[in-house]
Write the structure tokens for this entry.
Amino acid sequence: MQRRWLAVFLVWGGALSACTVDLDEPSTSAVQQKGMQMQGMQMQGMQMQGMQMQGMQMQGFELGGATLSDVGLTNLHVDKGEVVATKDGTTVRGTSLAGAHLFARVVDPATQNTIDVEYRIASIQTEKSQYDPTHTGATYLYTLEQYVPDTQMWSNACGVDLDGFQYAIPIAATYDSHGDRHYTPDMFTFGCTNGVIAKCYRWGYRPWLTGYGGENMDDYHWACTRAARADYCGDGTPHTYDNTQIDVWDVLPAPGPTQKRGGLLGILPPLGMVFEAGWDTQGAVCVSRQRWLLDGQLLANLCPDKLVPPGLLGATVCDTLAGVLGYDPDVKILEDSYVNVHLLGITIQL
């Protein structure tokens, strides 16, 4: 296959590419293969329907006010990827919650005014085993629909994922516009499977898991959302494009790692990829020399208080696991990538 070479890096649509790709790039499977996870720009992946919702941002789903068959639900909460509640003194969970109505709180960023939006759980099915790399048991996928006052109809709340479905996964936390995670007593998140909250969950970073040498899997999930959006600065701004291929891996102790490195013997990057960065809950810990070479000034301008170019005092440059650990011994996520250039909507791999 002949490669085309481009000697200039461009930013298109306000996004800094996360990663180089052949113009004759092969199609990718919807199933996430080792060494071929897909980045995305969206956290939750929600589609806000209706004129009233233009520009609104999701804060989270409310634990109060839910009903099932017009009967109030109490003690609504998320337990290990499953919505659980009490109805008439009896616990309801799993597929029994199909048909439940609940409310989400959304905010107008300009005025900070909030409104409640009604949703319903149209159906529930068991998650596929292929999305359980930890082998810790099946959870559930929820088909959410939003009530749209403009049309007085229900509309699917999630965008289409790589499998062609529109599902959501519940997480017992909320995420703000800066990508920061919060635990509040009255809200939780439904992350659509086209968004990175659910993607990281499906890559095995299930927030409730324990037993990995005392590591906090909750923080691995949060750090994964930074890597999956190329949120270098940790400020909630993505610097990638949807479905950009990356290789996410970790060095979790037994029974880890959750994701192994995709190259030879699990110690090298997949063919054609290079090491890109180490990640924690606040964004990139350090960035490879290759990434600095291509995007150094952009990174320095974007993250002046966090990422320092090579040659300067305090430079944050790393090309190996050992290099990352020198900056942060508690780093959560490691990542390899191609080096992508986006030109007029076309991704070119150098």
In short: The chain has a mean pLDDT of 85. Residues 44-194 form one domain. The two ends are 13 Å apart (CA to CA). The longest helix spans residues 289-302.
